[in-house]
Prior knowledge:
Elements: H1 4-17, H2 57-64, H3 71-84, H4 89-109, H5 121-142, H6 144-150, E1 159-162, H7 167-180, E2 198-199, E3 208-214, E4 223-230, E5 239-244, H8 248-257, H9 262-269, E6 271-272, E7 293-294, E8 301-302, E9 308-312, E10 315-321, E11 323-324, E12 332-339, E13 342-350, H10 366-375, H11 390-401, H12 404-407, H13 418-428, H14 433-461, H15 465-482, H16 491-496, H17 506-513, H18 516-523, H19 527-534, H20 542-545, H21 550-558, H22 573-579, H23 583-591, H24 630-637, H25 640-648, H26 674-684
Antiparallel strand pairs: 1-13, 2-3, 3-4, 4-5, 5-6, 5-8, 7-11, 9-10, 10-12, 12-13
Amino acid sequence: MNHEAPRLNILRRLRAWLGLAIGLALSAVSPMSGSAAGQGDGGAAKPRSDCDSAPTAIDRLICAEPSLAVIEAALDAAFRDYRERAARPAERDARLVEQRLWLEARARACPAATPNALPAGARRESAVACLSRIYQQRVAVLRYERNAAAWPRVRFRPALVEGAGTKLCEELQRDLVASFFGRGLFVNPLGEREIGFTPMPGLGDDPMVLRADIDAYNLGKPFPILQWIEDNGGLQLSTVEYRAFASPLELLGAIGRGVEPLAKSVRTAAYAVIDVDRLPRPDPKKPITQPRAAFARGSILTVDEMPRFFRHQDRIYLLSPMKPASDKPGDLGVYRLYGPAQLHRACLFDAHMPIARSSDRALALPEVEEFGRAAGPLLPTGRLCAGLSDTARTLAEHAAWRPWVLDRRRPAPGDLSGEQIALYMRNRALTGPEKARQYRAYVSARDAAIAALTPFYRNEFGRTAAEAQRFAALYLDRKISDGFETDPDDPSTLMLLAADYAGKHDVQQAALAGDTLALRNLLGPEPKAIAKGVTRELDEPLLADAIEHPVTLRALLELGLDPNEIGASGRTPLMTAARLDLVEAAAILLAHGAAPDTGAGDAVAQTDSTGDPLCMKGDVALSDAPGRTALSYAAELGSPEMVRLLLDHGADAARLDNDGRRAVDYVRNRTGDAARSAKIAEMLR
């Protein structure tokens, strides 16, 4: 049995989460790539064939790892700009020395990246994740001057609340603010200071256990600290706990004496590095002593609340997100530990976006909410989803506080760009008259939402009107792409993302537009055969496409097209007319042989089977049981005119669908007119 694969899956998921643990709760790491950049003035990344000649194991790993393919060029370009900004030669030389010292410090931050041979499996994944974080932080520091100048007006800037005047706090403040202005998708002040943990083989797959040997209490006695990471099946946030052993021998003994599951038995034998339950708590009866912020609420925390160990001048500190006291700043604390229940705060940063005390209704405008509702029916799941990925969880925070991140986002595999979203939505509009209507509503809602959001970026960030409009569009399109849940094995999504989809749907476009002349030319001398040939898996019948244009509909029927053809939705053109309350179209279809009691078939599936369980609704409404008739759709819509027309043409009100429901069972007061709904129900009895 392969135990490595589950461990790798957890590590890949945690690569995104680990960036959230230090304060600003932003979204997933999009690792920059490459090798050990910035050592000189060269720029291009080494070809993979040259990796063996790289000077260190870290350089060889960065050179060989595809996900780090451009990091050398990115870091080197940032360093060249940083060095050239120095006014004096001596300062430029000092910056070169600073960069060389940073490169030397990588090994301590990412121990998994420094074996004699390149790491494999989970160890390699851990090394790549660690290097991604520290390189991204370094690039943010090097580009700080340029990034801050590009955004002189922002809504929030991390601030030092306690610890001013100390080297530790001042340096962290500098790096925290630099990272805030950076293009990375998370904010991380630690960089190479962070102590990297290395996966421990042999302790099972879930929970995953990582190890670092450090002098956490600054007593000159390093000891093993283990990090237990519970994946929770990916359905909720992963959790993290730190536990320790007094010595490596004690850890080996616990492993030797352990029983399956080994990770849990070893955890039981360890002691808490930080015993939250024994830490002094403020007296609730004395609110005047309430501190600015409270330390971790428990020993087991979600990954975006977890403390992180780091070094500064050969001492070990703990960086921990915190729960602010009421109406007081203080969201990121730096502590020095003296024992499991002894700690001293050295620095305190106001580092979270102050959403609670802001006027952030800009991102919850009615126009934005309507945009989400309009987009949902066009998506594979039939609704706009926000899954558990931290990209989805924190999109609003990016949009509200660091919009430049939206502008420079490096898409992860499977992510959709704004252009792809636009293409998908346009192609979706060609699959039938209902989708065409929904697409028109979507375009209108998007325009309205962009107009409503544009003043936010103009007023809060000082952007020009054109820039403000672009950032509003970026946020809205990201909102769709991050909520795009689909089954990766469903080919229909790939079909709808195909660039040539519209080119293959000339006939459908003509029918949807009511262009009778173009249709006659496109269908040629054998219209019935050609109409069959151009109707694909996701399409509705051409008669349904023309349903809003009576002249075109009648012309197609006179060409001999089948009024009872069932499309991808499982519905006939008559059912579509009933759903859209197009009484004239329904009368034309009935006059040309449409059967009023034809039952709906199964729809083509476009539903998610792997993502957020709350988003697995699908394109088909819950009430769309096979066997439904046009009469049941008319009853559900609340159209007495359509109901009367169908009954007059022999529709059977007593007919049951596959769920055993009659048309009257679908009557709802959708119009707000109870008397009208009662009238329809009476007509159907």
